Amino acid sequence: MAVSQHLGADGAAPVFTDAAEARRAIRAGRFRGHTSGLVPAHAQGNLMILPRAMTEDFHRFCQQNPKPCPILGVAQPGARTLPTLGADLDLATDVSGYRVYEGGELVAELPDLTGVWRDDLVTFVLGCSFSFEAGLIAAGIPLRHVALGRNVAMYRTSIATRPSGPFHGPLVVSMRPMKAADAIKAVQVTARMPAVHGAPIHLGDPSLIGIRDIAQPDFGDPVPIEPDELPVFWACGVTPQAVAMAARLPLCITHAPGHMLITDLLNRDLPFL
Predict the structure, then answer these.
(1) What residues of the chain score a pLDDT lower than 70?
(2) Which of 99, 117, 161, 203 sits at 20 to 30 Å (Cα–Cα) from 184?
(3) Pairing relation of β-strands 98-102 and 261-266?
(4) Contact (CB, 8 A) for 102 and 250
């Protein structure tokens, strides 16, 4: 298997060098962890899977909220493949964790969707901030959650998304602690990649965007912030999950937070999408 075992202080995930091989390992159940840093050269994606009748409203929602919901691809109704994102790719098996919501409630966490797949389901793949992390690391910016082998910390905010049909709810953000000089570089690096959330939406005081306790993320793992650092917040592709809960959608299926679809797209090409 094309994988090198680079482990962080807490035992970070293995780093695959080939996206298709990583997907096959997930499909076979050999890997079930979060995917931050898993295939550093390749873009990762969030999933939002909906009945066909809801897709027009959700597509408009994404257009009106491009920071948290940048579209990388949309599958045909009932299709488990998406050739523009990967030649050997199965949307129902190639994510290391899925969530099923009914009426806004989380009703199941599944290793794959083969038992619940329907012919009317449409999959949206949205850009993920894990995809710009390789660029941050290349720019010399340390990422503590990667070093510790943790999932990134994610929070609901008091910022409302722009609604479309039944879709409404709070913006979710991911947070990475950085020194001020690194935060400036991070803005410069990520602003070039709007396909994976682009530049941060907030730096500094979390209470200004409605986060009461930075030590208690709503999704992912807590990540410590040192006294000489400030939290830097990016719009996050977990936003549709918060929207599904707020809007009490009758059915939607998503990735588990931090468990992304690894695509054949290269991160170096993201500025040109």
Answers:
(1) 1-14
(2) 161
(3) unpaired
(4) yes
